[in-house]
């Protein structure tokens, strides 16, 4: 009969811990009081010892798992018994007091997306959760993915804490199904009088304060054996603790055959008084991807920008005249973006190289317009795509942009909705930008920047008048688009916007 090894008492007000290091592996023979693993909390480090002699049959909570008080860590069987596979059936097993265990898995992330990062846990170990309640949020290179609870019950273990990179279909947590199920079991059952197997003798050591984080003992031993300093290792554990695998990576790094990328210039020294008032936050995967792609665009494309200005009075007058009728008939407001999309699709037909892309030594001309519309979100800039925008009317464009914009702000865009764009429009004017040079969205060859509408004096028919003017900026890849083509494109957009009747007559 197997003996359970459970999380011991962690101290007053401490309700959860992280499994830092396993000192025994599956199938190892253990003696009474052998140290099996080490747990870490914000306050203390706890060593868990074997309560009986035998063989380590099952490790339920691997390194990095967040566990609650009295949660099951492992099982020790008789010395002659065959060991189980690591974690196999752990979620399906349940004690009489725990109920059925349900795995929380990484959901489908979209085509070609193989991993994600756990950005936020909205529930902690021991919380009662309802079915479909949001447990955590994952971040991929493009989208945020919400993970709902597959069943009602109690969150008994968090296997992938915040900051963990997980593969598609990986296990994130476990839920003990049923009302009140999975509540941490005390050392002595008060209802039946049955004795719960003790987790064995424990040794509690007070850890260093948060500003002086205590590294895992196994990591300290590994650093001493390898002869490397603590400064040479980057910790990935809680609060920057160095774990055993971090030391292994640091030792292997100098021997890597692949040359490391050129590092950014080191940060200038900061006075201690200023450092104490700073906050360091890891970049999200979305922000890292934005940074990488924008820098790639600068490094690979021969990027140039040409400018013009457009008198918006024609569009504004047309919009004011028909906006109420438009909204009543189509159920959506008539904005400026549909005019810009239509103007660009007309201009792209005349200057098709702006809608093309370079593929090696080939130029790929596209006989369609998939219009990317840049949208600012709390997580960063995303570019959902209005497909076949050249075949859509004003109402269809406005409805699609409104739908994609809402989904972008809610973090619910799919990968498919942000791929395949052939040209992009970015509206910095909504934030008050008067003039800017947009960066290409590779592999596209053109991007139009809209800006703030501002009343300015202009000369019309020899008279100085006040008109609502907007600066337009077209950034383009000079490898494929010549200056003549770029200027022609922007002039055609200007003409269509200043005389919207041209759009209706396909001129």
TrEMBL record:
Any one GO MF annotation of this record: dihydrolipoyllysine-residue succinyltransferase activity
EC number assigned by the record: 2.3.1.61
GO CC annotation, single: oxoglutarate dehydrogenase complex
Family annotation (InterPro entries): 2-oxoacid_dehydrogenase, 2-oxoacid_DH_actylTfrase, Biotin_lipoyl, CAT-like_dom_sf, E3-bd_dom_sf, PSBD, Single_hybrid_motif, SucB
Cofactors, names only: (R)-lipoate
UniProt keyword Acyltransferase, yes or no: yes
Chemical reaction(s) catalysed: N(6)-[(R)-dihydrolipoyl]-L-lysyl-[protein] + succinyl-CoA = N(6)-[(R)-S(8)-succinyldihydrolipoyl]-L-lysyl-[protein] + CoA
Region (Disordered): 178-202
Composition skew (Polar residues), residue ranges: 186-195
Keyword Manganese found: no
Gene Ontology terms describing biological process: L-lysine catabolic process to acetyl-CoA via saccharopine; tricarboxylic acid cycle
SUPFAM superfamilies: CoA-dependent acyltransferases, Peripheral subunit-binding domain of 2-oxo acid dehydrogenase complex, Single hybrid motif
Assigned protein family: Belongs to the 2-oxoacid dehydrogenase family.
Function: E2 component of the 2-oxoglutarate dehydrogenase (OGDH) complex which catalyzes the second step in the conversion of 2-oxoglutarate to succinyl-CoA and CO(2).
Quaternary structure and interacting proteins, as annotated: Forms a 24-polypeptide structural core with octahedral symmetry. Part of the 2-oxoglutarate dehydrogenase (OGDH) complex composed of E1 (2-oxoglutarate dehydrogenase), E2 (dihydrolipoamide succinyltransferase) and E3 (dihydrolipoamide dehydrogenase); the complex contains multiple copies of the three enzymatic components (E1, E2 and E3).
NCBIfam families xref list: PRK05704.1, sucB
PANTHER family, A to Z: DIHYDROLIPOYLLYSINE-RESIDUE SUCCINYLTRANSFERASE COMPONENT OF 2-OXOGLUTARATE DEHYDROGENASE COMPLEX, MITOCHONDRIAL (PTHR43416:SF5), DIHYDROLIPOYLLYSINE-RESIDUE SUCCINYLTRANSFERASE COMPONENT OF 2-OXOGLUTARATE DEHYDROGENASE COMPLEX, MITOCHONDRIAL-RELATED (PTHR43416)
Official protein name in the record: Dihydrolipoyllysine-residue succinyltransferase component of 2-oxoglutarate dehydrogenase complex
């Amino acid at each position: 009969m197997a003996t359970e090894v459970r999380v011991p008492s962690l101290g007053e007000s401490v309700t959860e811990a992280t499994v830092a290091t396993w000192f025994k592996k599956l199938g190892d023979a253990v003696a009474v009081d052998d140290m099996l693993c080490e747990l870490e909390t914000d306050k203390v480090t706890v060593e868990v010892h074997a309560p009986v002699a035998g063989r380590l049959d099952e490790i339920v909570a691997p390194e990095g798992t967040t566990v609650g008080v009295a949660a099951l860590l492992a099982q020790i069987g008789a010395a002659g018994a065959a060991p189980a596979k690591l974690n196999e059936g752990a979620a399906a097993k349940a004690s009489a007091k725990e109920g059925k265990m349900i795995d929380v898995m990484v959901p489908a992330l979209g085509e070609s997306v193989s991993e994600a990062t756990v950005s936020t846990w909205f529930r902690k170990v021991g919380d009662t959760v309802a079915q479909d309640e949001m447990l955590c949020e994952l971040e991929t290179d493009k989208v945020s993915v919400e993970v709902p609870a597959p069943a009602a019950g109690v969150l008994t273990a968090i296997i992938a804490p915040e900051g963990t990179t997980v593969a598609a279909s990986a296990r994130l947590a476990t839920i003990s199904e049923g009302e009140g199920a999975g509540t941490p079991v005390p050392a002595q059952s008060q209802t039946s009088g049955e004795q719960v197997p003790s987790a064995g003798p424990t040794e509690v050591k007070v850890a260093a304060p948060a500003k002086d984080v205590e590294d895992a003992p196994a990591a300290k031993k590994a650093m001493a054996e390898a002869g490397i300093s603590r400064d040479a290792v980057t910790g990935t554990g809680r609060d920057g603790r160095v774990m055993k695998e971090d030391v292994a990576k640091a030792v292997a790094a100098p021997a890597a055959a692949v040359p490391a990328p050129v590092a950014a210039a080191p940060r200038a020294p900061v006075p201690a008084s200023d450092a104490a008032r700073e906050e360091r936050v890891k970049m999200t995967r979305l922000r890292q991807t934005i940074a990488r792609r924008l820098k790639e665009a600068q490094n690979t494309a021969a990027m140039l920008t040409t400018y013009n200005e457009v008198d918006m009075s024609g569009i504004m007058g047309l919009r004011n005249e028909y906006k109420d009728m438009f909204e009543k008939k189509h159920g959506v407001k008539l904005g400026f973006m549909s005019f810009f999309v239509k103007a660009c699709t007309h201009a792209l037909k005349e200057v098709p190289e702006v809608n093309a892309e370079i593929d090696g030594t080939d130029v790929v001309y596209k006989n369609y317009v998939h219009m990317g519309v840049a949208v600012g979100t709390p997580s960063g800039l995303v570019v959902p795509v209005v497909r076949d925008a050249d075949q859509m009317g004003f109402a269809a464009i406005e409805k699609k942009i409104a739908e994609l914009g809402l989904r972008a702000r809610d973090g619910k865009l799919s990968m498919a909705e942000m791929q395949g764009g052939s040209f992009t429009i970015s509206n910095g004017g909504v934030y008050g930008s008067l003039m800017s040079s947009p960066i290409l969205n590779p592999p596209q060859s053109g991007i139009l920047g809209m800006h703030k509408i501002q009343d300015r004096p202009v000369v019309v028919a020899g008279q100085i008048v006040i008109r609502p003017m907007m600066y337009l900026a077209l950034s383009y890849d000079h490898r494929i688009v010549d200056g003549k083509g770029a200027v022609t494109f922007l002039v055609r957009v200007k003409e269509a916007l200043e005389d919207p009747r041209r759009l209706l007559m396909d001129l």
